[in-house]
Write a structure and sequence with these properties.
Elements (H helix, E strand, L loop, with lengths): L2 H10 L3 E5 L3 E6 L3 E7 L2 E4 L5 E4 L1 H6 L7 E4 L2 E2 L2 E2 L2 H15 L9 E6 L5 H13 L4 E6 H8 L10 E6 L4 E7 L2 E8 L3 H16 L1 E2 L2 H11 L10 E8 L5 E7 H25 L2 H10 L1 E4 L8 H9 L3 E3 L6 H11 L1 H7 L3
Parallel strand pairs: 1-9, 9-10, 11-17, 17-18
Antiparallel strand pairs: 1-2, 2-3, 4-5, 4-6, 7-8, 11-12, 12-13, 14-15, 15-16
């Protein structure tokens, strides 16, 4: 290998792929794999405007901070809701990925929801440039998830992927490295958490926090009846008496709480199947639907989708990391990246 080629390679070895999610941000460094996987949360001191913590440390503070420190989720529905703090968060994660070295200006590939507006695209790119990127490429999350899940996306056959994240669910049918049909519904994991909070408030007059509702969803949540009943003890504040209280709830109740959210996701998959050209639809009948994203970990969601569509449904190997693994693969396959990066 000539010297110039080697120096070029060393230039590009700083490249990063980022899955900038509503719930979690994952960073993949070329040659190293996933180097950051932390919640997309920033804790800010309102008096000084200083960032007190980012990621895991900030999540620990959720719902537990004094008045002058607020934990902010700068991403909402898969897009940037708070420009300034997204930039600080990105900057922190990029530095962490490069062991805090300051002189690095990486090329960055970022996954974004399919139906993102020009303004939202601009916001993501600007944030990355301000966080010291040298070049920024955007790819659709559904496409990245399909690559990360190991689907043969460059072949002329239909691949259908349902990527359920924190803020959005992306449904896409992909063939020959292009998206034939894609749709984003802004209903996903966070919506499930909110549904649990509302259900428990309505049924028991008990107020629970975001972290508790996420625990309930992870431990008890399901989309289809389970083989054996699960129960869990939860703590919250009684809204009638105003004092802390403990309750025991069952998986059946949480299934009822999540019913509406799950239906929206199933319907999005159904609509995608209706809109798919017949030849590709025939491929999907054989190969089925691949589920990915953190939200797809909801118990028996695959079973429910199989029941409703009659198609085979499989789970990606590492659903939480599919998007970042897919974007990561593009760092070493530049031709593929050029094909699928969005303008």
């Amino acid at each position: 290998m000539s010297l110039s080629a080697r120096s070029l390679l060393s230039l590009f070895s700083n490249d990063l792929a980022i899955d900038l999610g509503t719930a979690n941000t994952l960073v993949f460094a070329k040659g190293k794999g996933i180097v950051v996987c932390e919640p997309s949360i920033v804790a800010v001191n309102q008096k000084t405007g200083k960032v007190e913590a980012v990621g895991k440390e900030a999540k620990e503070m959720l719902g537990r901070t004094p008045g002058n420190i607020v934990a902010i989720r700068p991403m909402r529905d898969g897009v940037i809701a708070d420009f300034e703090h997204t930039e600080k968060m990105l900057d922190y994660f990029i530095r962490k990925a490069h062991n805090r070295s300051l002189g690095v200006r990486p090329r960055i590939v970022i996954g974004v929801p399919s139906e993102i507006t020009q303004v939202e695209k601009r916001a993501v790119m600007d944030s990355a440039y301000r966080a010291r990127a040298s070049e920024v490429y955007l790819v659709e999350e559904a496409m990245a998830a399909a690559i990360g899940a190991g689907l043969p996306i460059t072949e002329p056959t239909g691949n259908m992927v349902v990527d359920i994240g924190g803020g959005t669910t992306d449904v896409a049918v992909i063939s020959m490295a292009g998206i034939v049909y894609s749709r984003t519904v802004r209903v996903a994991g966070n919506e499930m958490d909110e549904a649990v909070v509302q259900y428990i408030k309505r049924k028991y007059n008990l107020l629970i926090g975001d972290r508790t509702s996420e625990d309930i969803k992870i431990n008890l949540g399901s989309a289809f009846p389970l083989d054996e009943e699960l129960t869990m003890e939860i703590k919250g504040r009684d809204l009638v008496e105003g004092i802390p209280k403990t309750l025991v709830i069952s998986d059946e109740e949480i299934r009822e709480a999540l019913a509406e959210t799950v239906s929206v996701i199933i319907d999005a998959a159904r609509v995608a199947l209706e809109q798919t050209p017949p030849e590709l639809a025939a491929d999907i009948v054989d190969k089925g639907i691949v589920l990915t994203g953190g939200g797809s970990l909801l118990k028996n969601l695959d079973k429910r989708l199989r029941e409703e569509t009659g198609l085979p449904v499989s789970m990606a190997d590492d659903p939480l990391a599919s998007v970042v693994l897919g974007t990561g693969r593009m760092l070493s396959d530049f031709n593929l990246l050029k094909k699928i990066a969005i303008e």
